[in-house]
Amino acid sequence: MNLITQPISQISFEQYMAGEFECPWSDCRWESGEIVPVPPEYGENNEISQYLFFQFRLHIINQGLDMGTCIKDTDIEVNSTKHRTRKPDVMVLSADTRAALRGRSAVITKAIDPPLIIVEVISKNYRNIDLVEKKQEYLDRQVPEYWTVEWDCAIPTIIVRTFDAATRSYRSHQYQNPDVVQSTILPNLKLTVNQIIAAQ
Q1: Is the confidence at residue 3, as pLDDT, over 50?
Q2: pLDDT tens digits along 50-62
Q3: Confidence of residue 137 (pLDDT cuts 50, 70, 90)
Q4: What does the longest C-alpha to C-alpha distance in the chain come to?
Q5: Residue 22 backbone class (left: φ over 0; alpha: ψ -120 to 50; beta: rest)
Q6: How far is CA 27 from the centre of its chain?
Q7: Which of 7, 12, 82, 98 could pair with 68 in a Cys bridge, judged by C-beta atoms 3.0 to 4.6 Å apart?
Q8: How far apart are CA 191 and CA 175, in angstroms?
Q9: Any residues with CB less than 8 A from the CB of 95 and at least 6 apart, and which?
Q10: Residue 47 and residue 52: Cα distance in Å, rounded?
Q11: pLDDT of res. 200
């Protein structure tokens, strides 16, 4: 494959999907024709993301559910103020979405069913992006559950937003220690806020 040598501000979505570009950073995503760097995470963010990925995966296997999981390695196409992709920290995918991604770039386009669950672990520098921008973008994609995990604050809080098809809005449920976080997608999953924040 011949990589595109033109400036990274002139990359179409199709070229991004095909991987026909050179990324000068360790990780990147696409935004309105530009390749945008994805900055490194806090260590705590990575630990919490990895813990949830492992717990989701273990639960899905133990329950015999036909679902998949991915962590920071799959894009989702969204459209709010800009046409862009996001790289969620953790996602739970349906069988159909998993199948649609096989043999092609790991980008959940608008033609593919959205993830069943998206989790974003919040960093204080990007709090508004996760709580406002991404919330609206994932709502527009009708993601059934959107979790935010806020650990870097006085009272660690997890918010689970559940999509309401009738009102086309999210119903939010807030959890703090010692609450057990409730999921409609994985109703038998039993994790407390403290377990998730401590990542153990």
Answers
A1: no
A2: 999 999 999 999 9
A3: very high
A4: 54
A5: beta
A6: 15
A7: 98
A8: 11
A9: 66, 67, 68
A10: 9
A11: 65
pLDDT digits (tens, 9 = 90+) for 61-120: 999 999 999 998 899 999 877 888 899 999 999 999 999 999 888 999 999 999 999 999
Q: Is the bond into 24 cis (omega within 30 degrees of 0)?
A: no
- Extended beta strands in 38-177, E state: 67-70, 75-79, 83-86, 90-94, 107-108, 117-122, 145-150, 157-164, 169-175
Task: Report the distance separating Cα 92 and Cα 74, nearest Å.
Answer: 11
Mean pLDDT for the stretch of residues 27-52:
83
One DSSP character per residue, 142-177 reads T-SEEEEEE-SSSS-EEEEEEEETTTTEEEEEEE-T
pLDDT at 27 over 90: no
The pTM (predicted TM-score) of the whole model is 0.86
What tokens were used for 106? 């790991």
User: In the 8-state DSSP scheme, what is residue 125?
Assistant: G
| 115 Cβ contact list (under 8 Å, min separation 6) | 76, 88, 91, 92, 93, 94, 97, 108, 143
Question: CA nearest 189: which of 151, 145, 156?
Answer: 145
**Residues 77, 85: contact at Cβ < 8 Å?**
yes
**Residue that has been written with the tokens 């990575």 in this structure:** 46
Which residues, including other chains, have CB under 8 Å from residue 132's CB and lie 6 or more apart? none
Interior/surface letters 124-145, b for 16+ CB within 10 angstroms, e for the rest: eeeeeebeebbbebbbebebbb
